[in-house]
Amino acid sequence: MKQETSSDWVARSLKSVWHPCTQMQHHEQVPLIAVSRAQGPWLYDHQGRRYLDGISSWWVNLFGHANPRINAALKDQLDKLEHAMLAGFTHEPVVELSEQLAALTGHALGHAFYASDGASAVEIALKMSFHYWRNSGRADKQEFVCLQGSYHGETVGALAVTDVALFKDAYGPLLRASHVVASPDARGATEGETEQDVARRAIQEVEQLFEERGNKIAAIIVEPLVQCATGMAMHSPLYLKLLRELCDKHQVHLILDEIAVGCGRTGTFFACEQAAIWPDFVCLSKGISGGYLPLSLVLTTGQVYQGFYSQDVTRGFLHSHSYTGNALACRAALATLQIFREDDVLARNRDRAAKLAQALAPLAGHERTRHFRQRGMILAFDAIEPDPERAATFSRRFFSSAVENELLLRPIGRTVYLMPPYVLNDDEIEGLAARTIRVFESVIAG
Ligand SMILES: Cc1ncc(COP(=O)(O)O)c(C=O)c1O
Which sequence positions carry the modification called N6-(pyridoxal phosphate)lysine (predicted)? Predict the structure, then answer.
């Protein structure tokens, strides 16, 4: 039998697979990599070349590829139950997962509704909020608020509360308008301002909007602590605390999209724990299944749940997806939560995050970077590239050079970021930092 090589798979893929978030013509210059297997933080292609997965395969992989404990749990689950519909039926993995997640919120958010992708979880939170107000005799509360630079996914409802022009503009006429308020992005600090000052300034805009239109607004949606897709824009937890107070005062739901920042990414299991608040809805996906299977969910309060509980079928939340609460995906999530408990992951990540920051210190003080920033296991900096043409191609040039240096990193514009899996040992931390510095130097040198 003919042995397929990397280039065979690449050619076949380019003919038959339409790749996500990609201008396909760019693959005339930028390499497409055919992965044959993966282990720990490493991806391997068919020629045995390896790539250190510095962005956890789009921020999903927490405990490395082919993790023995998650693999074992999935193999066990596979022989018991792969999937059963969740309307009229339930099963052990979905019940246990819901209970464990509720416990992680101190039972503030005790009801879990499941889907597969992050964007679907966002749709669910938006619909639940809207429908809750309608069920509560407040059908006039129909509007949504999002932040400048927000990203909540690509489906039509999620895109309506997204503020990234590149993803949104082409579909403008399809989308329902939402209010866009200032981002508390700490990079917006003026001379002498702290990140808390920026948060207070940003919250004033929300306050004004709520005072004017709070009775028409169903919910505000926020990515807590780090707005990832816009370029790792980080803000003070104070913003979330002040926002919670405003939402309470004006009876507006607070939806926290923890799809990217949840599951320990910012240093606590939920990012909002750093502000000592709970939202009305939290959306989780990506890391929750350890990066193995598509799983997303919305956790909400008893109050919201009770708003739907009725004899009347139309007051129920009739949303569904075929794979809602998939047993295999829930089992992967249970194995993931078990690793958090057994390995004291949050404490060990503090050490990893500090070592990574230290190893990247030459970039923090580099004359061609600014805004070196970190929240837990997310580190980012902005490259200074004064030539507009070179600035426009920075990300692609960086990616290609990274690949040549056994590294998977995909800058967002000129923001270079690292979001590695929580398994790096000291050598891998040093290797990740050294490769990043080498690639950066070569890309800015031309
Ligand atoms: C904060 C946030 N929300 C929602 C999404 C959408 O998730 P998915 O791509 O699984 O639909 C993403 C994806 O990157 C995200 O970062």
Answer: 286
- 232-271: pLDDT as tens digits: 999 999 999 999 999 999 999 999 999 999 999 999 999 9
Q: What is the pLDDT of residues 189-224, one digit of tens each?
A: 999 999 999 999 999 999 999 999 999 999 999 999
Is the confidence at residue 24, as pLDDT, over 70?
Answer: yes
CATH code for the domain in which residue 48 is found:
3.90.1150.10
| Closest residue CA from atom 5 of ligand 1 | 153
CATH number, domain of 302, equals: 3.40.640.10
C-beta 264 within 6 A of ligand 1: no
Cα 53 to the center of its chain, rounded Å: 16
Token pair listed for 281: 């809805």
The domain of 174 spans 70-343
Nearest atom within ligand 1 for CA of residue 294: 10
Phi and psi at 342, nearest 5°, equal: -70, -35
User: What is the Cα Rg of the chain in Å?
Assistant: 22
What secondary structure does DSSP assign to 147-158, as a single string? ETT----SSHHH
CA of 167 to the centre of ligand 1 (A): 12
Q: What are 30-54's pLDDT values in tens digits?
A: 889 999 999 999 999 998 999 999 9
The number of domains in the chain is: 2
What global pTM score does this model have? 0.98
CB atoms under 10 Å from CB of 405, counted, come to 17
Close Cβ partners of 167 (under 8 Å, ≥ 6 residues apart)? 151, 154, 159
Cα-to-centroid distance, 58 and ligand 1 (Å) = 9
b/e per residue 232-248 (b: at least 16 CB within 10 A): bbbbbbbbbbbbbebbe
The CA–CA distances, whole Å, from 375 to 66, 108, 432 equal 27, 25, 18
Residue with tokens 């990300």: 395
Q: Express each pLDDT in 347-401 by its tens digit.
A: 999 999 999 999 999 999 999 999 999 999 999 999 999 999 999 999 999 999 9
